[in-house]
What we know:
This protein is mainly alpha-helical. The protein has one domain. The protein is built from eight helices and no strands. The protein is globular, with a radius of gyration of 20 Å.
Amino acid sequence: MLKNTGNVIKDYIKNNKIMYLSLFLFYIIGIVLGAASVNDLDFQQKDEMVTFFNGFLKLLDNDNFSQINLFKTSLLDNLKLVGLFWLLGLTVIGVPMYYVVIGMRGFSTGFSSGIIMGVLGTKGVLISSICFVPKEIILVPCLLALGVNGMKLSGNFFKTWLKKNGPQDTGVKQKIMPYSFVAAFFSFFILIATLVEAFLSSGALKLIKI
């Protein structure tokens, strides 16, 4: 069963590789722009960032710090993102919006990691690797898959909308159920990414002192 599932995913990626590559390109562009924008911060802003990270790492050592609460917060954020991706697939403007959202996701990651590395130097590279790499390795491919899944359905809705004065494609509505199933499938892996962020990454950060 796992082998068949792997083959299905492999064929799906192969048949939609252009969309995968284009979305991934926007993600990379977002990271580059986010990291580059860190250079626009002045000394005072960078100093505030150092103070913030010091406070955050001290919070991790606090007995009142709850990884469960961190997990709940992160899970809620990710569920909102999944919900947004699902809704975009049901609109006629979903295709360009997926590029915007993926690009903004990359910008956020690039900006956050750029700040950490910029103000903390070598230790910042380690912190960025712990904070972002584990969860992004799982999360980003899932978001790309959700994006491609949504772009295909959104494209069908757009074609139907263009033909609104002509024959209607009633088959589009029948695709919503498998579309939702794919969204739920990748949401499971996003749950894993959330667990990694809340427990593994935060646990590893406790070992780091600035």
